[in-house]
Amino acid sequence: MLDVLEKALKELQKKLEKLSVMQLAVDTNNAKTESKKRVKQQVAAEKETTKTVLSSAKRNLGNAIQGKFGKKINEVLEKQAKLIDHL
User: Fold this and answer.
1) What DSSP letter does each residue of 14-25 carry, written as one string?
2) Residues 6 or more apart whose Cβ sits within 8 Å of residue 85
3) Neighbours of 24 (CB within 10 A)
């Protein structure tokens, strides 16, 4: 009788360990998902900041620098802003 109880206890302990490992996996996966979400939000914020800075630089340099060089700077800054949109 005691052997049967010990065997049942060991089985329960194994099941408990399996459940603990499964719960740890779920918790880790949730943390990973939250981390990815935060990173995406940070990237989006940085993209907007960078686009704003590029737009401001384009506006300021476009007014300050005339001629072919000024046009070339505007073209490069526009390309950079479009590149950021595609990231």
Assistant:
1) HHHHHHHHHHHH
2) 47, 51
3) 10
pLDDT tens digits for the chain (87 residues)? Answer: 788 889 999 999 999 999 999 999 999 999 999 999 999 999 999 999 998 998 888 888 877 888 888 888 888 888 888 888 887
Q: How many residues does the chain have?
A: 87
Contact criterion met (CB below 8 Å) for 67 and 51: no
Whether the pTM exceeds 0.90: the reply is no
Pair 68, 31: CB distance under 8 Å: no
What 3-state class would DSSP assign to 54?
Answer: helix
Cβ–Cβ under 8 Å, residues 80 and 52: no
* C-alpha–C-alpha distance, residues 14 and 23, integer Å: 14
